[in-house]
Predict the 3D structure of the following.
Amino acid sequence: MSDSTTQRILGYKCVGCGKEYPLEPFIYQCPDCNSNLDILYNYELIRDIWSVDELKKFPYKSLWRYHPLLPVENPPENLSMQSGGTPLLSFPQIQTEIGKINLYVKDDTRNPSGSLKDRATEIGIRHADELGQDTIVAASTGNAAASLAALAAFYEKKAVILAPASAPPAKLTQILQYNALLYPVEGTYDDAFDLSMLVAEANKWYSRSTGINPVLAEGKKTVGLEIAEQMNWQIPDKIFVPTGDGCIIAGVHKAFLDLVRLGWTSKLPQLIAVQAEGSPAIVNALDSGKPMEKVRSDTVADSISVDLPRDGEKAIKAIKESKGFAIAVSDDEILTAQYRLSKNTGIFAEPAAAASMAGFLKAMRLGKVFEGESIVILASGSGLKDVPAAQQKIEIPKAQPKNLESFLTFCKEHQSK
Ligand SMILES: [Zn+2]
């Protein structure tokens, strides 16, 4: 790292015991208590070298426009992959149904491999490159793996993926299509995660496993930075975030903390963690006021199906500090919201991503959102990765006779739907 980088990034702080560590050597977790680490920036220095006007001059939509707030020395030379830079959409169609709430959807299905995970991968790969490491290993329920495989292909790195053998075939296909080494694990995501730690340690490979590498949340936070910039620094009242390991919501929280510390904004949005009823470890911990306990996860939303959230401590801190809350939604609510989101917005989100829409609709029913609020729901991954899940709410019509009369009858029967 250059002198200017070591001045811009101060080091790591343990979210468990609060102990601070220097930037070098790179460590994944606190050597004292094994908790996760947060990256500390020198905001005074960043304020001196960067401004909203400087940001406007950056010619690319890519997440690299926020480089002064990212934990790597330099952006990659080739910026054409464009991770991030996704649209923030508003929808009059939904607006009429929900009354005086200003609703926006952050469409992160449009990232290179179809999910928000590309934001973390971009930073992870660049970081590995600066550490001189060529092979990157990840455990993933699918999206992070597909993301690593895709961007490793682009940036000429070797990707090694450990995924539950039960992951949706489309996601496993995507991994292999990018020529990554896939090790399908007989077991759950948690089993794959534990094995990936052993594999990384034994081979001295860089670990892109969500939930322990502090660099990854810094990539994910760019979704929050973008939301703020796209809303012209007017912070939304609430952001609904699909939550499994807790890394995305922790990243979004960090984004808004960064902006307050820079003086670019003055408040934090309330962060709402949306979990599946079949994977509710964070909801349970907040409801009971007790430490997080492992659950036996079982949900159609595979991307947020997690027994024990690896970034749960950071997620709970983000929810509490932002005065948000956590909400659990059923698989049926998720699939219904998935269909409604597609029907009203043109976005085909995967079940986990549609969970944020389901959480918003449920919060509205429970009187937890209010007239006049501006609300962002995060659509974090594409539905094309898990078509069979969507098909639970869709019936494909059977073949029809090839004549006009049949067509007109068919239209009458179906148009009212
Ligand atoms: Zn510690």
